Amino acid sequence: MQKCKTHSTRKRLKLRVRSWRRIPKVPLLPPNWSLLLVAPEALLVVASLLQQNIKSRLILRNPEKATELFGEQDKEKLQVFKGDTRKQEDLDPSIFEGVTHVICCTGTTAFPSRRWDDDNTPERVDWVGLKNLVSALPSSVKRVVLVSSIGVTKFNELPWSIMNLFGVLKYKKMGEDFLRNSGLPFTIIRPGRLTDGPYTSYDLNTLLKATAGQRRAVLIGQGDKLVGEASRIVVAEACVQALDLEVTENQVYEVNSVEGEGPGNEAKKWQELFEAANSR
């Protein structure tokens, strides 16, 4: 009975992955790229990259999450490593061999919750974990994209000081600053309040239904002035599009998603959005 149930579940998972057509596909990346993606939120990016046959590596505390979602994948396309950025010993140099680009989506809740179990606090995740990761990366990495949060520069001001009662914005800003000062080329994406999730379920169709409305238009700003919400799918797309654009190198952007048609996977439209933000 258990065997049948497992087979049925895997079959549903395969169907759901194949049906992921409403997520904008990312542009085809150069075949010599090797992407390293960190944390569960990066699974959104992985799904699109698998469709494009882009070689990726994924660091997860629980690699079974990737298997549940994507099934067994060709290791030439996707390699999954068990690792915890809070633990330096988990970040073996072999994980980073040949890696050219990195997307980091680590995070935890702003307020005490069950997700804080096992010392999974903002300080350990957003500060210590990011510092460990950046310190472990080879100097040859061409770009590090970090997902942070709006409000990090205003954590002592209302209403942000409420969100920062346990230090989440302060530690995210400390992580940002460490990356900035590392000497590695970077892009920092600060989304508004994340919607469509959290992305912890294998049920892709549920997620797609939550994002299939009209909130696909994208607002991009700088200076920590934007407030609002951001679709996880939009944030994932912003990360991928920013990876190799010259205009986004060593830049920080706030991202919101609003009513209207979005840029989808059109690189030119994304470049125009980033350039417009730079010129303001």
From TrEMBL:
It holds the Pfam family NAD_binding_10. Transmembrane segments: none annotated. InterPro entries: NAD(P)-bd_dom, NAD(P)-bd_dom_sf. SUPFAM superfamilies: NAD(P)-binding Rossmann-fold domains (SSF51735). Residues 43-244 form the NAD(P)-binding domain. PANTHER family: FLAVIN REDUCTASE-RELATED, NAD(P)-BINDING ROSSMANN-FOLD SUPERFAMILY PROTEIN. This is NAD(P)-binding domain-containing protein.
